[in-house]
Amino acid sequence: MSIASIESDFRTLTTAPPSTELVGLSLELRTWLGVDFVIYDADDQRLLYAEDPASNIGSECEGLLSTVAGGGEPLVIDDADCVLLVALPIDASESKRIVAVGAFVIRHVTDEEDLTAAERLLGMDRQAAIRWINDQPVCDETALLKLSAAVLAKLAADQKIRQLEQEVEQVSNNLASTYEEISLLYGVTQNLRLTSSDKELGQLALDWLLECVPAEGLAMVLPENGEKLNFSQIKSLTSGVCPIDSSELVGLIKFAEQQDARWPYIANQTVTESAAWPDVCVRQLILTPLCEGENIRGWLAAFNHIADEEFHSVEASLLTSIGAILGIHVGNHDLYNQQSQFMASVVRALTSAIDAKDPYTCGHSERVAQISVRLAQQLGCDNETVEMIYMAGLLHDIGKIGIEDSVLRKAGKLTEAEYEHIKLHPELGYKILVDLKQFSDVLPIVLHHHEQWDGGGYPHGLAGEDIPYLARVCAVADSFDAMTSDRPYRRGMPFEKVETIFRSGSGLQWDPQIVDAFFNAIEDIREIVQRGRDKQPFELQQWD
């Protein structure tokens, strides 16, 4: 990209405000990945948005931007030993392809180093480049690319949700077409409850439709695994008197498709008594797909008018509207699963970063999470709390990413200054997670898992009931695994010795109620620790 072109883009950015979408995208990328991104049009290499209009990061990689956009995955497009340029292909709502480029530091530098390549890459003079590099957090390249891929998945899922919301709004507008349809839908929608299962919602809809539609029976066909409909793997739901089985219903769907039918498909007796009609006991039929955009997520059918009359457009329109609602619900269910997978990917990336940073405690976070879950169950916590404390256990030591390697891996006793440094990790972990609203519930656990019942802990010296309850649970789990784990400077303590320490520390270092729960679940906790150490996710030697 030429200097004149960059200057032209700069003038454009300073005279025309960037789109709300690009500003929002930049803010979201900075929230998740911690740096400012420059956004380009991948096809004509045009700079679309930069927080700093003078920034030209990535401008020298114009030949790679189109490759990144076509690849669909984050890619390192340039490096300068201590700095990486990472490009993310964004699935834009418009037809154009865009790529976001950000600079990440993989190690800090000294004043004596040759930083010519980094200065070029960052577009800064030497002193500015040194200040910028040393002000940034150090990233692990592998973890960075994994987290970037997870962020791209989240952005794609968010865009899909926006599209579905637009479709829901369009469907809602169409409901005003007839008074009869609105009246019937009101009775159904007032009693529909969004559930975690498409099967539960589908059955509820069928039962209520049976009271609104003059049909002897209703049936619904859904994909077995909540994904794309495949007639070889389906689940069928019924309400009322259904005269045919699922295989015969599939036959009717295929028959209607062969008729080049317009949906909803209505077949009254002039059709069902014809020679071409399949050999099934159906006198009248309404058949409509469960649509999510262009995707068919299932089928809804009404059989045999209760007065042996014809089905009309009012009944067909109602089934079509309900089919649209259910189709979108099935699609949303997939999106919820994608969001869950995204969160799992983020947590895996973060815990991998912890293990890479402190390999001698590799697997510690997973074991603490499992022990915390067992303690929470012993204490009678509900499922939501159990799931939350598992997440907190995985992330409780995330602040160690900001602790110096020389302190974490020191083979001997820590000096007072080193101990004070390592005591910063709960607050560092809090700061890492505080802007991620999905992790808001785990923040008190991350921040306070080193507080002590008698007030002698850190970072805030809280005591007794002032310490968040689940932080007290995590503290017991964390202490047990830490004391029984091997470290560079000592072997792990025997279980019997650790149990003696817990008895003497009950009411002093730890909440006595949670220590009691610990001893009531001790056999399970021992098994968790032993099983976890038999299955280490990392080989220590690869980090030496």
Task: Let me know the average pLDDT.
Answer: 81
Indicate the CATH class of the largest domain.
Mainly Alpha
Secondary structure category: alpha+beta
Q: Please state the overall shape, judged from the principal axes of the Cα atoms.
A: flat
- At the fourth level of CATH, the homologous superfamily of the largest domain is Hypothetical protein af1432
CATH topology type of the largest domain: Hypothetical protein af1432
Which consecutive residue ranges, at least 5 long each, have pLDDT under 50? Answer: 1-16, 191-195, 536-544
Distance between the termini: 42 Å
Strand order of the largest sheet: 2-1-5-4-3
What number of structural domains do the residues give? 3
Q: What radius of gyration results from the CA coordinates? A: 30 Å
Q: CATH architecture of the largest domain, please?
A: Orthogonal Bundle
What's the total helix number? 21
Largest sheet: 5 strands, antiparallel
Helical coverage, percent range: 40-55%
Number of strands: 10
What amount of the residues lies in strands?
5-15%
How would you describe the overall organization of this protein?
- The chain contains 21 helices and 10 strands.
- With 544 residues, it is α+β, with helices and mostly antiparallel strands.
- The chain has 3 domains: 3-137, Beta-Lactamase (2-Layer Sandwich); 162-335, 2-Layer Sandwich (Beta-Lactamase); 358-543, Hypothetical protein af1432.
- The strands form 2 sheets. It has a 5-stranded antiparallel sheet with strand order 2-1-5-4-3, sandwiched between helices.
- The model is unreliable at 1-16, 191-195 and 536-544 (pLDDT under 50).
